Sequence to fold (145 residues):
Amino acid sequence: MRREYPDSPVASVGAVIFCGEDVLLVRRRNEPSKDLWGLPGGVVKLGERVEDAIVREVEEETNILVKPLRLLAVLDNIRRDDDGQIRFHYILTEFRCAVVEGELRASTNASDARWIAVTDLDLLKMSRMARGLIMRVAEEEGILR
Fold:
């Protein structure tokens, strides 16, 4: 499966995970969001359920085992090159997850992983889509007062 200039959209997952007023974020090591902070997650493997993919991806990137609580959103992330060709197209299935266990440590395609205060998100280089989703969920759950 080609991720860059794909023949069809790539199914992927992301997790919104809070600890108090902090959210778990990773700094991406690879394109299309290299060096940006974002939600832990990644590509769904063939034959894998999205609920299993989010657990696997979060653990691979952060060493944290999670449990999916609810589906938050299904979003498109489409990026075109300078000629207008579709360079990346991900369909993102976003879950609200809870920590089960683990000690935070970045690995695989995350160059860093941290708990970051929701109030500090504007200080980070991250996508508006990820920031907006985090803020929406934080407001819905009363994390922001």
The longest strand covers residues 65-80. The first helix runs from residue 50 to 62. The mean pLDDT is 94.
